[in-house]
């Protein structure tokens, strides 16, 4: 039986570099962190709803430390990792865990089915995995602006994203039981394209494609800014959407 390696869409090296730059940017008082804050709050709400009090927890991707702090306050033993210290495309050490939470991370791995299987294997029996990341409905205005910037031959600049149906199939493929996929939309107001790009960099959400596109020239940037602001409301603000996709699965 022949085994084929998954296509290399993302660069792990670029991903780690972007995360490190984001941590430096977070030192500024006005640095954006709303996506991760939203994911953390959502996870805590879910755990409270199902009344889960895990003993051992693995948290991936929460560079704020907020989720781990809350879980430790409830008596859990928590291991924390990010893309620099843990490769989700490899078997995970330290288990078994009663709960694994991955935030803003799984959408940037080349072998997502394999990563989900590694997470499942690191769970204890009846363990729970919760993974949240930007889904296919995210950043529609930015996508239109990027297409307008290079109308003749647009370079690949934005990540392929996963929708609900594909996510459900991936959970089944990774042998999770009682799996649930749901999403909600976070809407953020921007006064210009430059602010959106800055917010993405603050949160380590810049492009980490393996084939990096060349920088946009001045004319292309002007076309992108114009196309972005054409979508503004009567107050001169563009309401951009982030679809937060959440995958939940149990190991029975």
Q: Can you tell me about this structure?
A:
The chain has about 250 residues and is an alpha/beta fold. It has one domain (about 10-250): 3-Layer(aba) Sandwich (Rossmann fold), CATH 3.40.50. It is about 35% helix and about 25% strand. The protein has helices spanning about 10-25, 35-50, 65-75, 110-120, 140-150, 165-175, 195-200, 220-230, and strands at about 55-60, 75-80, 95-105, 125-135, 175-190, 240-250. A 6-stranded mixed sheet has the order 2-1-3-4-6-5, with helices on both faces. α4 links the parallel β3 and β4. The chain starts with 11 loop residues before the first helix and ends with a strand. The model has no long low-confidence stretch (mean pLDDT about 95). This is Methyltransferase domain-containing protein. It holds the Pfam family Methyltransf_23. GO terms for molecular function: methyltransferase activity.
